[in-house]
Amino acid sequence: MADQTDIKAIAEAAAEGAKFGTQTVKTSEKILGFLARLFKEPAEDTMGIIGDRLKFLRWERQLHYVEEVNKMLEVRGIAELERYLQSLLCH
């Protein structure tokens, strides 16, 4: 049977294990917090760059559509899309 000294030693070892576990969790939280701050801004910047690129590509596509419509209207004898739309609105 274990005596008081053995029980005290086991309790102290358990307490040290708990301290180690607590310290490990705190250290892990600090490391993960640092990594989150480290990678958050580059990830946001990357998403912003991709978003800007998509907006630019959409804008280019819209210009292309306007040019194509203007070519079609010119073939039909209508000079510009804007003038054509104004004529529709005025009537």
Radius of gyration: 35 Å
Task: Sketch the major β-sheet.
Answer: none
How many discrete structural domains? Answer: 1
Order of helices and strands: HH
Key terms:
91 residues; mainly alpha; 2 helices; 90% helix
Task: Report what the structure shows.
This protein has one domain (4-90). It contains two helices and no strands. The chain has helices at 4-75, 81-90. The longest helix has 72 residues, at 4-75. The mean pLDDT is 80.
List the helices and strands and how they pair.
Layout: H1 4-75, H2 81-90
Give a brief outline of the structure.
By secondary structure, this protein is mainly alpha-helical.
